[in-house]
Write a structure and sequence with these properties.
globular
């Protein structure tokens, strides 16, 4: 029987594949941001939130509301830097692996 992505572990590591995807996406965006020559007002916000995402991923399965908050802050601070759009999209997709946000009533 096939298990969902939430239940499968990366072969040999025991790490949740969603966490692996998140760590890889965060790492890519951090590298691209570090290599981007332009300074912009909210760059420090993006760097801080990427560090927070990385710390959450290292500690295990992160809290979805906190993941989404960090994603919004990152997207808001990097939003106009089109050269980073692909890496931001990868982080968004990795966050979405953890599920939908709870509905608002």
């Amino acid at each position: 029987m096939l298990r969902s992505v939430e239940q499968r572990a990366v072969a040999g590591s025991g790490e949740d594949p969603r966490v692996s995807e998140l760590r890889a996406a965060v790492s890519r965006l951090r590298r691209e941001l570090a290599g981007h020559p332009a300074e912009f007002p909210d760059r420090a916000v993006a760097e801080d939130e990427l560090a927070a995402l990385d710390a959450m991923a290292i500690s295990g399965v992160p809290e979805v509301p906190r993941l989404r908050r960090s994603l919004l802050l990152i997207a808001g601070s990097i939003g106009s830097v089109s050269a980073l759009a692909g890496a931001v999209t990868d982080v968004r997709k990795a966050v979405e692996l953890f599920g939908e946000p709870p509905g608002r009533y």
